Structures are given as structure tokens and as C-alpha cells.
Amino acid sequence: MTPPYQIRAGYDARTTVVHQAYGPAIADAALRAGRFVAPFLFRRMTWIKPSFRWLMHRGNWARKAGQERVLAVRMTREGWEEALSPATLTTADPAAVAEAPVHVQWDPERSPRGAALNHYSVQVGIGRHLIRTFADDWVVGLTDLTPRVRKAATLLQTGRAAQAQRLLPPERAYPLPRELERRLCVGRADPAPERYRRAVAV
Q1: What is the helix (H) or strand (E) element at residue 139, kind and residue range?
Q2: Nearest C-alpha neighbor of 152 from the set 140, 142, 141, 166
């Protein structure tokens, strides 16, 4: 049985994969450069999501305006853990959250059809003071998943869920250092801090 709070991601010995969705202008520029460049905004928090299914729920399988392009963002594991190290849960004291360079929020994980599951998916908000480090030092590769997303969405719409499932990126429990696991993966889910949900930039 999946623990309620567990970071799951695609990863190898050196890197971790997170997901983001953007409009065509940002995605095309980033893919051409192999990294995030303008018109990507470096002055606001950017949210990264290990869970592909949660992002598909959020962006309606790349059909939501401004989220038509889905990118797999491969970053170093060192950078991933460095990002998590100063993170503050969005359920913490509002003053602490406001000062935190990185936010961590838990939301119900989703099935491919969007149903809420009984365990949670992590979203990580990289604050503006760390975005350049994220974009220039931690990110090592970008892959356009949009064709796969569209194919999987068509399969789901036509009742071929098993075939769609095979197109989803594999994710497994990420071996967090014990201190990070204790600090970030224990507690209750954030049920309704709307000010943060509205601020999540995909």
C-alpha cells in the first residue's frame, strides 16, 4: 500500500525527472535552447511536479490554455535535494511560508482518469531567488512529452485505459535523505489554502 506522503518520481543514479506545462512560446524557446530562456519568467515562483498524472489532471491533458505543451524536466539529484533542503510546507505558519525560498505542497494523487486517490503527490515551488540556479545549474535536459500526452488522452477518451497507462512515465519512491523525509513527508495534507492553489504556476 502506498504511504500517504511519499515522493515518487522518475530517476536514475544522477538525475530526477519533474514535469511542467507551458504555452507554446515558452516551451518552444526552451526546447530550442535546451534550457529555460525568455519568455520563461525568472521573476516569479515556478512549480515543478514529479507526478505526471497530477499535472495531467491540473492541465486537462494539455488542453488547458497556457498549458498546451508538457515538458519532462531532467534535473540533477543533487539539485533536486538542494531545492528540497530549505523548503517549507505550505501548511506552516504564513510568515514562515512567505519567507521560504522553496514551498512544498501536497495534493491528492490522481488516477489517469482524474479520480483522487488516497495518497498524495508533492508539488515544489522554486522561489524567484533560486530560479536562475534551477534553470542554469540544476536542469540538465528538457523533453517534449506533448505528443505522448495527446496520444494517451485520445486512448483514455476512447476507453483504452490500459494502452494509455503504458504511455505514462514510470515513477517510483524516491530515496530521500532521512532528515528531508522526516521534515517534508510527515503531517497532514494541505486541504484548502486557496491563496497557494491560485498561485501555483504550472
Answers
A1: strand 139-144
A2: 166
